[in-house]
Amino acid sequence: MADIYRRPIPPDGTIQVAILLPLSGPSGRLGKSMLNAAEMAMFEIANEKFALMPQDTKGTPDGAAEAARRAIIGGAQLILGPLLATSVQAVAPFAQAAKMNVVAFSNSRSVAGNGVFLMGFVPSQQVETIVAYASANGLNQYAVLAPRDPYGESVVETLQAAVPQRGGEIVATQFYGRSGADHSAEVKTIADYDRRRKDLMAQRAALERQGGEAARQALKKLEKRDTIGDVSFNAILLPETGQALRTLASLLSFYDVDPPAVRILGLRNWDEMPNPGAEPALVGSWYAAPTPVVRNQFVARYRKAFRTRPARLASLAYDATALAAVLAQGAEGSDFSQEALTNPNGFLGVDGLFRLNPDGIAERALAVIEVQRKGLKVVKEPTRTFQSLTN
């Protein structure tokens, strides 16, 4: 890295900020959507002295490292991106050698710190938000059905810490693979379906032996039931999204895990779904996410500008660029120092209020949203200021 140096600020005072994205390769479409959002933020917020320097990472760590090298030699004063944790890891040494900060789009805690700040949504904050709300509303027996991967394991680990703090208990945990295989066996297990089915058959047999009109009426009530008795939990967390979430929710209903006895809970990735209420089993569920109002306005402006819907992660690029544009307009010139980036009052973005903490993690003010048949309802508004949390 001996050739890494930073060019001085141009005589015309241009403030150059690099944005590292996968503009080619398998994630090229996502990268271009994020770049569109970044450019939109620049035109909406930045002044004429602000220049955005797009660099293609090609979706690989080596490509990200080369993009960082080009950006630094080209005079960048701040790096936005890259997207993936492995790419962030490859970029960090170049940025540190040039004494630059990085505002990346990953949500992997393992790459945060030492001048690397993450805009991505960290699962732990979402879990803590939804557990706090659910516990305050009387839910104290939890189950979780999660993918067996680092994300799913992180969610379960956070849940195991958050639930006891609120006086609750985790009574069932089930992992499943992401191979695309049928997950009926895992859902059936967490639903304790075989025991509940056996209890129903035993009760039917007892009623048949008993005979008489009362027994006949009781049997008639059981005709359309597949099980009897409740599961051991009154809330189940599904940290999934898209078709996988719809399938899991439908399977839970099939195996007699239904509201109001059980409330399904979710995380921020639920808002990647355009209409979760289209799945009947999800109606009445709660999930933690940014309030949708400002984001919907962002989506409308993006569609007007680019005639297509933005990728879900495009808002991270918008907010990061907006943050850089604001910090570039300080009274004494641009300030991309750690002190400026970690302003305890935070910043208001498309995804709500957030602040970058010294450990490199973005702390976010999240709402709790209820899925309804014809839309979404915010049942708990996010905090409007970090002041009360700081003092």
What do you see in this structure?
By secondary structure, the protein is an alpha/beta fold. It has three domains: 15-118 and 291-365, Rossmann fold, CATH 3.40.50; 122-192 and 231-290 and 366-385, 3-Layer(aba) Sandwich (Rossmann fold), CATH 3.40.50; 194-229. The chain has 13 helices and 15 strands. The protein has helices at residues 28-45, 61-73, 85-97, 123-136, 150-165, 184-190, 193-210, 213-221, 242-254, 292-306, 314-327, 338-341, 387-390; strands at residues 15-21, 50-56, 78-80, 102-104, 116-118, 141-147, 169-176, 235-237, 263-266, 286-289, 347-349, 352-356, 362-364, 367-372, 375-380. The strands form three sheets. The protein has a seven-stranded mixed β-sheet with strand order 7-6-8-9-10-14-15, with helices on both faces. Strands 2-1-3-4-5 form a five-stranded parallel β-sheet, with helices on both faces. Strands 11-12-13 form a three-stranded antiparallel β-sheet, with helices on one face.
